[in-house]
What does this fold into?
Amino acid sequence: MKILDKYLLKKYFTSFIFTLLILIPIAMAIDVSEKVGKFLKAEDLTVSEIINDYYIHFVINYGNTFMPLALFISVIMFTSKLSGNSEIIAIHSSGISFRRFLRPYLIGATLITIISLYSNHFIVPNSNKALEKFEETYLRSIYKKKTKSSVSKVSLQLSESDYIYLGYFNFKSKNGYNFSYEHFEGNKLVYKIISQNIRWNEKDSTYRLSTYRKRFVGAYKDSLDSGSFMDTTFNFEPKDLLYVDYLAREMPSITLSNHIKKSENRGVENLNNYKVELYKRTSLPISSFVLTLIAVTLASKKRRGGIGVNLAAGISLMFLYVFFMKVSEVLGSTAESIPLLMVWIPNIIFGFIATYLYVKAKQ
It folds into this structure.
């Protein structure tokens, strides 16, 4: 690695870390000011628990969220300073092309993208889960609890040939009503089980059906079996009946991907919220390349007004990117949209902007 690469990479990472260390304490200060009253009301909550169980995970979560913003601002600031000191002119005068000048920036963006990808897919979901647990325990009032205690009118496709329906199920008592199970062979119904009551036995992962009827559909005549109780197994657990959007943020990507596939096989209609969350974990880190390229091309040219002009233009573009990102996430969550396309639209649009600015700067 040449001296120029080491010099620019050092500037790249020191500026990035410095900017990130400014943004995170600001976010923490705002959060503390909003929640200090709730912290004081929680009698059993200690300062150590607030730091270890909440703010460590808060820093991980918001640090990863602020990575693209911190990267963009830091690149604009230190590149504008290089341009203002005529260092970029000296670099080009020595025969180094703009393309070669970009290499250390892209190396830095690659390293940050790798870190962000790993964090988004594996570390941040666990932090989200810890934050959710802390807020559920200490910060929410009894009227704002997110935990769902029951569901009603739920239908699931367990496999290509098995379907269930539940009129009501309570997760606390693990008891449900108006249960039916249908087994098909092709388009033909083979048998159907109807039960007034169903209870989940967590110890041996079985269900007890009360006052049940099992109807076998024959070619010429049906047969009926009934009884007071029947213990059996089905290919689902009570948690599979629960469909809550915030759970997606708490699942590692492998678990989330498997959950989406499993839910699709079971006939859950709209999983776009889950898909948006999964695709966003990759698209946001990749934006490091796009934002780095935009920042370098904006700041590498010496302008009147120095860093201020470049920073104003850069922050304006950054706010536009965040706006497009949030709008695309909302639109991607609707049932009629294509989540993968909607999540990547901001990177596609700003990728074209970055390419245009690069070609213009190269000339």
